[in-house]
């Protein structure tokens, strides 16, 4: 019997709403919005600041033959990649409350007594929760993002057919679907690596606190930040937390920066268009992030706190 695999299945089924249904709801809202937008546009002209009035056949210049293919490719790939932002924000919220309650709830409902009677170590239990939030959940969200982007392209293809436009040369050939999907996969896991210290901290609080884990997790850091500023006139704790949060942002923005640079280089002879974008977005590449000392410091601290959560779980059976 694969004990660890069974524990992962348990985590998925007990948290199916946050891990599975929530991203599907986001997809439903996105698709509904896209279809509604097409219906509105198909019933009349729209006015935009940049392009003026367009009918259905030239919405946002995507099907305008006078617009350079590089511009179309950048616009299409950027739009597809940007789907990751809303999903990751939701994943962050789901992951926050999952980690905060994962070890606390077992003690609150006394189910920890059952699990401790089983031939399952505390190390396996805690690590299954780490893998669930840092590996399984991001992978599920990534699959949903891919499916959403694919359906969006199908909708755009129908739009192209109605507009009497070649969908392959105008849309699919410029979409870079596989490349964008791999960028999203790399970004979401790099962001999770930056978030390891937060995961470790929340699991530590969840394994230790006897009451109101949300307040125990949020109030002390705020008090420490305030006390440090008032007593020592410094902001090291705030700076550390900000660095890790910005690391998550960098991980998510790095592929977009790469797309901007790629198309800027293709159009280096043009003064405007895309060249300014890459100059403005100076986010570290994945390689630069992996070589960053702060990144590894966060990983080490996260691992230490996860280890502390495992140790505390061995001696704490009840929440109250």
Helix and strand topology:
Layout: H1 3-14, H2 16-42, E1 46-48, E2 52-54, H3 69-81, H4 83-102, H5 104-108, H6 111-117, H7 122-162, H8 167-175, H9 177-194, H10 196-208, H11 213-231, H12 236-266, H13 275-280, H14 286-290, H15 293-313
Antiparallel strand pairs: 1-2
Could you please describe the fold and organization of this structure?
- The protein is built from 15 helices and two strands.
- A two-stranded antiparallel ribbon has the order 1-2.
- It is an all-alpha fold and 320 residues long.
- About 5% of the residues have low confidence.
- It starts with a helix and ends in a 7-residue tail after the last helix.
- It is globular.
- The protein has one domain.
Instruction: Tell me the structural class.
Output: mainly alpha
Strand content: under 5%
Gyration radius, rounded: 24 Å
Helix percent band: over 70%
The side-by-side strand order for the widest beta sheet comes to 1-2
| Total strands | 2
Estimate the mean pLDDT confidence.
85
- Counting DSSP H or I runs of 4 or more residues, the number of helices is 15
Q: Outline, from the CA principal axes?
A: globular
Q: Which stretches of 5+ consecutive residues score pLDDT under 50?
A: 45-61
Most strands sheet: 2 strands, antiparallel
* Number of domains as seen in the coordinates: 1
């Amino acid at each position: 019997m694969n004990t660890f695999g069974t524990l992962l299945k348990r985590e998925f089924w007990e948290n199916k709403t946050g891990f599975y249904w929530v991203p599907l709801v986001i997809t439903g809202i996105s698709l509904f919005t896209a279809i509604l937008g097409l219906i509105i546009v198909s019933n009349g002209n729209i006015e935009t600041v940049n392009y003026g009035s367009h009918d259905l056949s030239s919405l946002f210049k995507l099907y305008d033959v006078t617009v350079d293919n590089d511009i179309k490719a950048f616009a299409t790939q950027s739009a597809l990649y940007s789907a990751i932002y809303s999903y990751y924000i939701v994943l962050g919220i789901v992951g926050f409350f999952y980690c905060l309650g994962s070890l606390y709830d077992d003690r609150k409902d006394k189910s920890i007594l059952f699990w401790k009677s089983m031939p399952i170590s505390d190390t396996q239990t805690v690590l299954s929760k780490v893998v669930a939030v840092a590996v399984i959940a991001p992978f599920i969200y990534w699959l949903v993002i891919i499916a959403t982007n694919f359906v969006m392209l199908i909708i755009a293809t129908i739009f192209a057919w109605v507009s009497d436009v070649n969908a392959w040369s105008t849309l699919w050939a410029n979409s870079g679907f596989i490349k964008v999907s791999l960028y999203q996969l790399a970004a979401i896991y790099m962001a999770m690596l930056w978030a390891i210290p937060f995961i470790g901290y929340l699991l530590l609080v969840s394994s230790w606190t006897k009451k109101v884990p949300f307040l125990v997790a949020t109030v002390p850091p705020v008090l420490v930040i305030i006390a440090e500023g008032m007593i020592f006139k410094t902001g090291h704790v705030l700076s550390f937390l900000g660095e890790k949060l910005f690391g998550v942002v960098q991980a998510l923005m790095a592929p977009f920066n790469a797309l901007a640079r790629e198309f800027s280089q293709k159009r280096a002879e043009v003064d405007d268009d895309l060249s300014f974008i890459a100059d403005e977005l100076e986010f570290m590449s994945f390689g630069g992030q992996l070589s960053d000392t702060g990144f590894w410091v966060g990983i080490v601290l996260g691992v230490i706190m996860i280890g502390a959560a495992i140790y505390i779980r061995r001696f704490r059976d009840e929440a109250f």
